[in-house]
Amino acid sequence: MSKVTKGRKKKAAALIIVAVLAAFIWSPFSNYGISLAVMKVYSGIHERESLMAEAGIEIEIPGGGATEEKDWYPFVMTYNPGDGFKRFTGEDAELSIMYNFPAFDVTKGGSRLFDRSSPYYNGFYGAYMIEGEDGEGNPYGFDKDGRLDLDAVSKVPEFDFQYLVLADFGLEREDMVFEWEIADFEEGVSYAGSDGWTRVDAGLTVNGAYHHRDKFRRSYLQYGTPAGFDGKGADFAPVEMKGRVYGKYFDEYGAGIFFYVMAADEGVLKACDEEILSGSRIREVS
Q1: Structural domain range at position 105
Q2: Is there a domain that residue 117 lies in?
Q3: Distance between CA atoms of 219 and 138, rounded to whole angstroms?
Q4: Cβ distance 260 to 42 under 8 Å?
Q5: 120: closest CA among 237, 263, 233?
Q6: What is the pTM for the complete model shown?
Q7: 12 or 144, which is more confident?
Q8: How far apart, in whole angstroms, are the C-alpha atoms of residue 199 and residue 187?
Q9: What is the Cα–Cα distance from 237 to 245, expressed in whole angstroms?
């Protein structure tokens, strides 16, 4: 075989490889791989700078691999909003967020967070750690008697979901809907390996995550895009949901910790709580 023929074959092989890579990158399947790669690094940076790291603890929360179903993303991520929470509440409180969202439908190029036909639509679970005080000198999220301040607690998921998640998708402030109505309240609950938690169940009316993609948004690197899902209906149409929060103040850390799950389907909420979130543990690290 001549050198010219060998060169042509190598060039043809290189072109085939480039074409295959290009096809993968532009296909819906690539969104999941990009998400995993980006979020592993990005979350790791925030984890090292979190309130948990400052307190010398780890909040270990199982990811989607804890169950056989393709229900949630493989691992829980960490995000620190900086001064955003202070500006939102007007209180001297800092927040670190741990969160997980519905699994990808790789054939459609995005998380089921966008899938209005899925019981996981609009769902999240995870934990918050909050350090600081309200205007009356109480630990944020608690009253002077150490009980949960439900109004203050509701501000945390409102800030998280509306101002961090949906605003990044393009939801305007004047269109934001967040209503919270307490359905059940129980103190002295054992959870995540310790006693003394308070559990709150609430009904929520919040904007849905589905919207028509109009341009690239940074959050698509994480969640994929909504382009492959049902395109009918209004963007960010409000959804009736269920929410559950477990809260407890830890004197030794000078902070409150809150586990949470929200879902449009009550069965999804209960399964996530019982099979995943309740397996969380808080442990000190050196």
Answers
A1: 30-284
A2: yes
A3: 35
A4: no
A5: 263
A6: 0.89
A7: 144
A8: 6
A9: 24
